[in-house]
């Protein structure tokens, strides 16, 4: 959503390195092809705010990409359901057509 606070993450780390505020909603970000400034950074790792604090290191844990496997399984399941429904619809149309011809 527009003007929401959000975390800023790197592609390969599951932990955020900062916080920011969105300058557009998700649909606008998508339609712009993720080009332009979608987030205004408010605080980042090793910035001035970090320097006045305890200066702890950002935890690093390699992002597990299993989410995509689950997403792909869900997509495959949806495709199978859609194909089964389409097949049922075609069979129903064929039966109706045969009944009308006979």
Automatic annotation (TrEMBL):
Keywords: Coiled coil. Residues 69-96 form a coiled coil. GO terms for molecular function: translation initiation factor activity. Residues 4-47 form the Eukaryotic translation initiation factor 2D-like PUA RNA-binding domain. InterPro entries: EIF2D, PUA-like_sf, PUA_eIF2d-like. GO terms for biological process: formation of translation preinitiation complex. This is Eukaryotic translation initiation factor 2D-like PUA RNA-binding domain-containing protein.
């Amino acid at each position: 959503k527009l003007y929401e606070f959000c975390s800023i993450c790197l592609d390969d780390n599951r932990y955020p390195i900062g916080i920011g505020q969105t300058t557009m909603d998700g649909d606008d970000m998508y339609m712009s092809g993720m080009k332009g400034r979608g987030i205004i950074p408010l605080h980042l790792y090793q910035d001035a705010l970090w320097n006045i604090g305890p200066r702890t290191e950002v935890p690093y844990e390699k992002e597990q990409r299993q989410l995509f496997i689950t997403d792909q399984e869900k997509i495959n399941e949806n495709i199978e359901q859609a194909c089964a429904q389409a097949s049922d619809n075609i069979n129903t149309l064929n039966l109706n057509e045969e009944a009308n011809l006979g």
